[in-house]
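Retry 2 of 3 after timeout on previous attempt. Resubmitting structure tokens to design endpoint.
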């Protein structure tokens, strides 16, 4: 079973924070009075600067340089490919009667799979290259035992949310605000998925509490590559279990799913 929580390397005291993702905040001189109705308050501008002198777009090397935009996109698209494949297997297992999911849960997972496919398509169109399209299932109970399934998916969603939070931060540092916006848009959808999974898990009697049980999402990673490392560590990449190729069984059905490409203001 996948553990419910995972602390960041910094929280575990394993290493110092990545200098590529370390910021300082500078307040400039006041910009003048606030609009009418705000009293005597004054605006100040906030400038985010990068403390590290490392090249912003340096390719990550054996010595641990900054993650490049390409590195981040490659990890993200790999995670999305895994999600599409894994949910395809889960839906197949539910259809065969091996995994007990009610009809509403099945509909929700069908929609979630379509969203993950939309994420994958966007990332590929923007130059992402999957690290692998072959995935493994380390424990058969993940696709047959409701408690193992639901708790595993919640933990995976939390990892994906955290990865996109880290990606958004890195994209901002590297001067890619459009990609940062999309990372937050995808991360928000992953958070919706997490709540949905918890809702159905609670209904199945295998998860306690309320579906929307956090005020702030977990920040688990200092580097997006740690999400790929986690999938490998858990046996979903290069594991000993049954190997499955992306996109997995079944057709993608996006019925009822809107915004299949990222909306802009």
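Retry 2 succeeded. Sequence:
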């Amino acid at each position: 079973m996948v553990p419910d929580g995972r602390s960041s390397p910094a929280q575990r005291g394993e290493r110092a924070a990545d200098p590529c993702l370390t910021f300082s905040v500078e307040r400039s001189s006041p910009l003048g009075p606030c609009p009418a109705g705000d009293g005597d308050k004054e605006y100040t501008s906030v400038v985010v600067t990068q403390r590290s002198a490392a090249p912003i777009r340096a390719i990550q090397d054996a010595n641990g340089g900054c993650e490049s935009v390409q590195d981040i996109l490659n990890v993200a698209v790999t995670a999305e490919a895994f999600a599409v494949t894994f949910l395809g297997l889960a839906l197949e297992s539910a259809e065969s009667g091996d995994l007990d999911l009610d009809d509403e849960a099945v509909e929700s997972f069908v929609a979630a799979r379509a969203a993950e496919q939309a994420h994958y398509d966007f990332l590929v169109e923007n130059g992402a290259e999957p690290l692998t399209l072959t995935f493994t299932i380390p424990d058969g109970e993940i696709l047959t035992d409701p408690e193992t399934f639901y708790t595993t998916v919640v933990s995976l969603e939390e990892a994906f949310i955290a990865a996109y939070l880290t990606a958004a931060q890195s994209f901002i540092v590297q001067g890619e605000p459009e990609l940062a916006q999309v990372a937050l848009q995808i991360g928000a959808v992953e958070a919706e998925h997490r709540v949905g999974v918890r809702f159905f898990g609670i209904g199945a009697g295998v998860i306690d509490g309320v579906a929307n049980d956090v005020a702030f999402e977990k920040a688990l990673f200092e580097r997006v590559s740690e999400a790929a490392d986690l999938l490998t560590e858990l046996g979903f990449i290069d594991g000993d279990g049954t190997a499955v190729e992306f996109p997995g069984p079944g057709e993608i059905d996006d019925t009822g799913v809107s915004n299949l490409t990222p909306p802009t203001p």
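Attempt log closed. The longest helix spans residues 69-96.
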